[in-house]
Amino acid sequence: MSSAKKQKLNDDVDKEPLHEIRAGFIGCGTIASAIATSLARPEHEEYLSEAGLSLSTISVTKRSESKSSKLKENFPEVVSIHESAEEVVRNSDLVFLCVLPQQVDQMLSELKEKGIWNNDRHTLVSLVSTSKVEDLVEKTSLPTNRVFKMICLPPISNREGCALLTPLASCENGHPYLKKMFDALGGVVECPTNEIMSSMMVPTGLMGTMYGIMKNNRDWLINKGVSPSDASYFVARSYLSMVQDAERDCRDPKRFDDLIEEQTPGGLNEQALKNQEKQGVFGAYEKSMDAVLSRIQGKSNGSLP
After folding, report:
1. What is the pTM of this model?
2. Bridge-based pairing state of the strands 94-97 and 53-61
3. Which residues, 6 or more positions from 189, have their beta carbon under 8 angstroms from its beta carbon?
């Protein structure tokens, strides 16, 4: 960010200096790239500044090279590519761990042996679905209020969706800015325990299911003679409008119930819902969600007969 922009943003926050973020990504897959993109996008600066934050730099490991190179190409002023995880940590304060589960132990052991973690400076956020915060604390020796687990989906790059974070970052003696940062990038729900986090992760595993339903709708329309282009466009736009309607006032736990009650008595939507219930669709959904949770908890491979 230019010095002029930083000064303007500082002035916008009652002239209090913004906390500068030096972000680092060990591993640069789809999710890492999405978070980095959200942090680096110029149009997101105002949201970060409203939270008292400003992006300074982003350091990423070379792997996956296609995504790290694309980040560098899109945001050359803030992104730097490094050959090793050690270099990323040395050049960052907020470190995102985005490697495969089987790579975590060796990666953290090597970093700990090199003594590069700084308890006063570094924060570690793991995006590895199987990681446990207590294990990460042990493997880094970082303070408990500096180690977190996070889950999000790729739309975070556009400030869409909602991240999950555990443990609580906004509590007394919590993290100074982590929750504010993720709120600025679209929203976050803090999970007080790993068990709650595991349960909350389940709906994120139903993204493919939602796309499968939309594909089914599209294919059904095509079989009825609708052009593939019109069918795809209509289904996507229709589902978008439904989700946008549901998102309004979504902090109200009765929002979905109210939307169902709004369906016209005896109408097509009410009838279709009842037909789905009779066919056991929602029971199948619950079994699928239980299976996903079982896999997350390491109790099974998640498959159903």
Report:
1. 0.85
2. unpaired
3. 162, 163, 164, 165, 200
